[in-house]
UniProtKB/TrEMBL annotation:
Residues 30-54 are annotated as: Disordered. It is found in: Cell inner membrane; Cell membrane. It comes from Dyella psychrodurans. Pfam families: 60KD_IMP, YidC_periplas. GO terms for biological process: protein insertion into membrane; protein transport. CDD domains: 5TM_YidC_Alb3, EcYidC-like_peri. This is Membrane protein insertase YidC. Residues 372-552 form the Membrane insertase YidC/Oxa/ALB C-terminal domain. Interacts with the Sec translocase complex via SecD. Specifically interacts with transmembrane segments of nascent integral membrane proteins during membrane integration. The chain crosses the membrane at residues 372-392, 435-458, 478-495, 516-538. GO terms for molecular function: membrane insertase activity. Residues 35-54 have a biased composition (Low complexity). It is a multi-pass membrane protein. GO terms for cellular component: plasma membrane.
Length: 563
């Protein structure tokens, strides 16, 4: 009965988990697109603390001013910089294709994280504002020497300079520096004051994007197996005092972030597997805020901004403001070196305490095997080795319960409908025979956290995105395309049922549920990542072998003794 309850509890929790995710996606709160209204480029603004000017949030352009698009390519990034504002409007992650590489398509298009398209609009903007002088914000047009830059062989860094000048004598050089093998971009805004008075102003950096478009699915199975529907999509920030926080787009209007003072923090826009983040200098005091823009002429734009401290530049002097922009994958070890707390953007949810150790163990195993699928198999063997004592206790308890079945049936006949006396008699029997009915719960307490922790690891770890196994499995983070693994797991469960003797105390309803469970699991696992199903196929085989060995040990021993 303990084994039965374990399976039933696991099945019900898995079904509840699927239903909860589907409900949250379909009926949970979502941002409501606001009606577009005509406006100028500066009609909706956000105040900058300590300055009179405001920062225009919208991306509207002045058609009278000409701008160019500049391509910058390294070994891992391809950026597109718009000379209007010097904004980074596109970023292609060259090592992360949209679809898996195949023989038919060995070079699929790379993921585009930043994008100036209407549907997937997401740009990294920066600029200066001043209360008493000219300053280039993210709408000002810069000049550039060329429109194509590429990191040459043997070159470790590549700099791109954009220049803005004003008739008053103010000159600003916006310099981006990219490094080989790095997703971190250095930004330096250099201010040369050639005017006759002191220039006062502030630097700001912001990320602006729209909500993700509603996905289109060809069938129900494709919809339910799309794990990207359940990951967090929105803004986030970090400060040493408040630590990591995030805000969904539907909360921007009602619960905005307003002028949070932070030294040593960052602001970001998150999505599954990838993120963009502005990281001010560690000792710089910045003001973080969010803004919702409804007058862009299309979908609402969501802005998260970091405004730097006051900068004063005397006539004939020079000053600069620096920051870093991270546009890349959510790799924990890499992000830990970029900024404190940046690795917290990997959204493991409430089961972080289980998911993070599982990810670490899998990463170490992958270093040995160079195959995440093989690493999952080794993880199964490792966990079964660690939990062998608990599993053995479960089978010992089940074997003892089967031996007590005739005596338990006798107690039921003796006490009839007096359930209280029957329970007391059964507890005395358990105590006398040293049987622990709760022993079967111990493996469940380990299995359930591992199941959900590994689910989040497979869903949100970019290392497992498009990670192949063998044969037909080309992506361990996606559902099995041919349902082979769910069928294999169903077969393993049926064999386990066939081998399992009738347990004491099982009522007819439980017996029917046990017969129905293999089909239930087959349906559940159709939607889960194939890496998770692989884990349970191997785990089921391990338990099948354990069950066979322990039944021979515990059930055959009394028979041999009697002979």
């Amino acid at each position: 009965m303990n084994q039965t309850r374990t399976f039933l509890t696991f099945a019900l929790l898995a079904v509840a988990f699927l239903l909860w995710q589907a409900w949250e996606q379909d009926y949970g709160p979502h941002p409501t697109p606001a009606p577009a209204t005509a406006s100028s480029a500066t009609s909706t603004t956000g105040s900058v603390p300590g300055t009179e000017p405001t920062i225009a949030n919208t991306g509207a352009e002045n058609a009278a001013a000409s701008a160019q698009l500049v391509t910058v390519t390294t070994d891992v990034l391809r950026l597109t910089i718009d000379t209007r504002g010097g904004s980074i409007v596109r970023s292609e992650l060259l090592n992360y294709p949209v679809t898996p590489r195949t023989k038919k398509d060995p070079n699929p298009a790379p993921i585009r994280l930043l994008d100036d398209g209407t549907t997937d609009y997401f740009t990294a903007q920066s600029g200066l504002v001043s209360a008493n002088g000219a300053a280039p914000d993210h709408h000002a047009v810069f000049q550039i020497a060329q429109t194509n830059y590429e990191l040459a062989a043997g070159q470790d860094a590549l700099s791109v300079d954009l220049t803005w000048t004003d008739a008053s004598g103010i000159k600003v050089i916006k310099r981006y520096t990219l490094h080989r093998g790095s997703y971190t971009i250095d930004l330096d805004q250099q201010i040369d004051n050639g005017s006759g008075k002191t220039w006062d102003g502030r630097a700001y950096r912001q990320l602006q994007r729209v909500d993700r478009p509603a996905p289109v699915y060809s069938n129900f199975l494709q919809r339910m197996s799309d794990q990207s529907r359940y990951g967090f999509f929105g803004a986030a920030w970090y400060s040493p005092e408040q630590k990591f926080n995030k805000i969904a787009f539907d909360k921007f209007e009602k619960e905005p972030l307003q002028n949070l003072q932070a030294t040593g923090g960052w602001v970001a826009m998150m999505q599954q597997y990838f993120l963009g983040a502005w990281i001010p200098p560690a000792k710089e005091a910045d003001s973080f805020s969010t803004t919702l823009v409804n007058d862009t002429g299309s979908a609402p734009h969501y802005v998260i901004r970091a405004v730097g401290p006051q900068i004063s530049v005397a006539p004939g002097q020079q000053a600069s403001s620096s920051a870093q922009l991270y546009v890349g994958p959510k790799l924990p070890a890499l992000m830990q070196t970029v900024a404190p707390g940046l690795e917290l953007t990997i959204d493991y949810g409430m089961l972080k305490i289980f998911a993070e150790p599982l990810h670490w163990v899998l990463a170490q195993l992958d270093k040995l095997t160079n195959n995440w699928g093989v690493s999952i198999i080794l993880l199964v063997l490792l966990i079964n080795l660690v939990t062998f004592k608990f599993t053995n206790a479960q089978f010992e308890s089940a074997a003892k319960m089967r031996k007590l079945k005739p005596r338990m049936d006798a107690l039921k006949e003796r006490y009839g409908d007096d359930r209280q006396k029957m329970q007391q008699a059964m507890m005395e029997l358990y105590k006398k025979e040293k049987v622990n009915p709760a022993a079967g719960c111990l493996p469940l307490l380990i299995t359930i956290p591992i199941f959900y922790g590994l689910y989040y690891v497979l869903r949100d770890s970019v290392e497992l995105r498009q990670a192949p196994f063998f044969g037909w499995i080309h992506d361990l983070s996606a559902a099995d395309p041919y349902f082979v693994l769910p069928v294999l797991y169903t077969i393993v469960m049926l064999v386990q049922q066939w081998m399992m003797p009738q347990t004491a105390g099982m009522d007819p309803a439980q017996a029917k549920m046990m017969k129905f469970m293999p089909l239930m699991f087959a349906v559940i696992f159709l939607f889960f990542p194939s890496g998770l199903v692989l884990y349970y196929v191997v785990n089921g085989l391990c338990r099948l072998l354990q069950q066979w060995w322990m039944m021979r040990r515990h059930d055959a021993a009394p028979a041999n003794a009697a002979a």
